[in-house]
Amino acid sequence: MAAELKNHGAVLSGKKRSAGHDDGAEDNNDYVVAKKSMPFFSSPAAMARYDPAAALASARHEFGEHGGVNMSIEASATFTVMEPETMRRMFSGELGPDRDFFIYSRHFNPTVLNLGRQMAALEGTEAAYCTSSGMSAISSVLMQLVSSGENIVASRTLYGGTHALMAHFLPRVANITTTFVDIHDMEMVRNALVVGKTKVLYCESISNPTLNVADIPELSRIAHEKGVMLVVDNTFSPMFLSPASLGADVVVHSISKFISGGADIIAGAVCGPASLVNSMMDLHQGSLMLLGPTMNAKVAFELSERIPHLALRMKEHCNRAMVYATRMKKMGLKVVYPGLEDHPQHKLLKSMINKEYGYGGLLCVDMETEERANRLMNLLQNYTQFGFMAVSLGYYETLMSCSGSSTSSEMNAEEKKLAGISPGLVRMSVGYIGTLEQRWSQFEKALSRMQDSGLFKN
């Protein structure tokens, strides 16, 4: 079993084992680690005491091999030992990455491990493991927690790829079934959870693409009553929502989105108990170990340099989304945004968010038909340069897509209807490049052209 990961605490040195280091000896001077563990909370009222930015700032900082303020990139696939006996002890789990012993970069890599520490601090969990994509993080967690013949209960409204994994792939290859429910109907959720058979309750903190908000504390309570683990995809809401602090057992991310911010990297993360991460890295039964969704060390380095300014970026994403959603609503558009008071879960989200960030960087405009949705996006990109027609989110430019025919296309018509995905739903990931008023004037210009064409009446 992989050694338990120590994720939190400021570090004042980053020494590596020297050639003369006794492989089995303790060296308390290698790392200076704070003894106080990260606090965990279980109610929305307590969330005011949790600050992910502060947690990131106090997480262990890894210096470069020669004293650089940035860590070195450990590009090695395999690692040496000083004594032959050490290798046996590493494979038995006696020596591991917590004491700076590494075997092979599919197992653990020092650079990737450092990014894992940052992700654990960001989400307030004991440990985290970073993977090659968000989907690999999701699939690895589910295949570790759920066995053949067992069941997942999941929200009807999920990213299309996650829905396809649960609805089609896992039943075919692993005999794992999923019961899809209205995640806001607590009685339906409770009745779907079968003691002894259901192992995971799965939802997105803010759903893709409808922007519904999950009641994480209540879902956690119901899941734990039935002996089920709550797994939450927090891709849409880094920094401003902390599901683990609200009772989630595992938090997964597509780091490719807001955390990366550059639309140039594919990556994922599993954040949760150290016992889970260790089990996923088990040599004989671990899904991460055996499926091998390994993150490249150079990718991990890139991402570790972006996380420190994630808080600043999220504040501006959220600020602009709130301003635009408010103005769009006043113009008569059908807007979906959790920051608006008429959103059905506005009060719920307000009770759960970490203060000072806002309500998210995504909004939706429901144009009702795909024709009107496509016309609006075409004008916004090709006539006024407000944003780009592209999937994904979290980029510094605004990205737009008609979800029903793109990121949710894996779902059939009935599934989309149950999920509340309108044919004309335009999902916008609001960027922060340019000035707010400059971008808003571009939106107004496109909408004016659309009104003139007769395709939209407010």
UniProtKB/TrEMBL annotation:
Organism, per UniProt? Answer: Ziziphus jujuba
The organism's superkingdom is given as: Eukaryota
A molecular function GO annotation: pyridoxal phosphate binding
What keywords does the record list, in alphabetical order? Pyridoxal phosphate
Names of the cofactor(s): pyridoxal 5'-phosphate
Disordered as annotated region, ranges: 1-26
Output this protein's name.
Methionine gamma-lyase
Q: Which GO terms describe its biological process?
A: transsulfuration
User: Keyword GTP-binding on this protein?
Assistant: no
What InterPro entries does the database record attribute to this sequence? Cys/Met-Metab_PyrdxlP-dep_enz, PyrdxlP-dep_Trfase, PyrdxlP-dep_Trfase_major, PyrdxlP-dep_Trfase_small
GO cellular component, as recorded: cytoplasm
User: By its UniProt entry, which Pfam families does this protein fall under?
Assistant: Cys_Met_Meta_PP
Q: Which family does it belong to?
A: Belongs to the trans-sulfuration enzymes family.
